[in-house]
Amino acid sequence: MAECNPLLNRRQILQGLGAGALAGAFAAPLRAATAAPDVLVIGAGGAGLRAAIEDRLRTLEQNVETMFWIRDIIEKGAEWATSQGRHERKGFRSFSVSGRVKNPGVKLAPAGITMRELVDEFCGGMQDGHEFKGYLPGGPSGGILPASMADIPLDFGTLEKYGCFVGSHAVVILSDKDDIKAAALNLMQFFEDESCGQCTPCRVGTEKAAKLMAKGPWDVKLLEELSTAMRDASICGLGQAAPNPLLCVIKYFPDELTKPLGSW
Ligand code: SF4
Q1: Is the pLDDT of residue 23 over 70?
Q2: What is the C-alpha to C-alpha distance for residues 17 and 178, in angstroms, rounded to an integer?
Q3: Of the residues 31, 192, 198, 240, which should be mutated to test ligand 1's pocket, given the most ligand atoms within 8 Å of the CB?
Q4: For 64-110, what is each residue's pLDDT tens digit?
Q5: Is the CB of 235 under 6 A from ligand 1?
Q6: Residues in Cβ contact with 120 at an 8 Å cutoff, skipping those fewer than 6 apart
């Protein structure tokens, strides 16, 4: 919490910080808005947060990336801003790209760019000897999609119907040299580590899912039942989204299910 420019009229800027999902991007700004009236909250949005702060008329919630572009939009005009973007999207997005591409890193790209365009035009293509096999469109929670679905515009609302989301725009590119099931297991173990432990479906669900995924063959029916419980009954987004990579492997990489873990 810090005192700000007087232009903000003695308001304070609170930014959500903290370890774990419960104290993270959604809940911390919500707690800040609830605890301290008359504040400017910077952080990820969400229906719950918006509903909470709408009661406080002098509170503004905004995304950091949106605020970053305000100066350029003022200087260059709205027409310039809306002329950027692809596939009927407007503006820019920052993608953090890692994985099997030649030039990983943070890429400032048109909003709505597809994954194939991002890889080919902004990342120098795939590494030599690697064939594009799949991708994480939005960090650990955003699911895993096959390369055959790399022509979908990457933006909010375009991937949800496939069980994925672009989220933080943290993209990971996987190749034919990667074991997709091992990647999904790694992600589930990450969620197991990150679970704050407050609610049982997430605390126990991630642990059980990781154990089931580590031994083969996968019991698909049991893993799907476990995923449903985690999605429906976890308190926050971490537990609700933890099954996304697992469910994507089952849905989009059925051939992988017959292979032993650690082979591809
Ligand atoms: S879903 Fe529950 S246990 Fe998991 S991080 Fe959120 S509050 Fe904690």
Answers
A1: no
A2: 33
A3: 198
A4: 777 888 899 999 999 999 999 999 999 999 999 999 999 999 999 99
A5: yes
A6: none
